[in-house]
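Researcher: Here's a chain I'd like modeled. Treat it as a single chain, no partners, no ligands.
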Amino acid sequence: MTADTATFPSRATALRRAGRHALASVVEQAVRRVPAGGVILVATSGGADSTALAVLSAAVASRGPWTVVLATVDHGLRPDSGQDAEFVQSLGEWLGVPVLRERVQVKAGSQLAASARRERYAALRAMAGQAGAAAVLMAHHAEDQFETMLMRLARGSGARAAGGMPAARALMPGVRLLRPLLERSRGEVRELLRTLDLHWREDPGNASTERTRGRLRHRVLAEIQDMAPGAAVRASRAARRVRAAARELERAGRSLLGGQGPWPRERLRTAPREVLAEALRLLGPGAGDDQVERGVRAIRARDTRPRVCRLGAGELRITVQDVRIASGR
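Model: Modeled as a single isolated chain. Structure tokens:
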């Protein structure tokens, strides 16, 4: 299908205006991590946020030493999902940049969102390899970050997870995943598109309250934003500081363990409570908050009876002298 670029405004004018926008400076600062001549793969669903990021990236690359490629993943979860991919194809042709497309199979069930996420990232890694990309850009913004933080806090996640999504991380060897809009609001992103007279695709699922994230977005987050305008941006900035603090807490937890067990119980018992909790999270990857808290209470208890607590896939075995981790039965 040939893209109908007549539905888009003047490319030169749009790129010029986008390049002058405050968000362009944010994107440019993020892609400075990419070597000169490097390829930037922009994950583009056709929604407002990724459409804006695609245009901003093209504007930045037009005055810098980078090449932009758009990448779109069709999850096949809606009858019209192929139209999203066609829109991204049209967007790429209008911008004058290549477009890579992947269709994935997502297993239905209670873990649909998690399954879609796994397939999406696998497809992005494959397309990054195909394009020879040095970085993959994603359009998560402050409201996305705030939602993630609240969901993880509700689950009792550790400090690193409670700090939300990192602005930059390794996606695969030689490829960085960058989220340049993480501390900017959804409203600012959409205002840019209105300024440029650009349209986008709407996923009707985003308005649904059937799933946890949808209920959080439309009921809880909307109420918080109404009470405290700008809360998502402030929370996203705080997330950066939480993640930095979490790294220090993790270092303290590793230092407390100091290598392979068993570990002297008295040393663990007298450690600061949150350092001990972090050490237990390191010992039991995947351990829930309740398991970690039970382990902390058991180690700090003053009675001498032996105790056994579940910790992730293993068991925490506590005696009066020491603490050790064993494989679960």
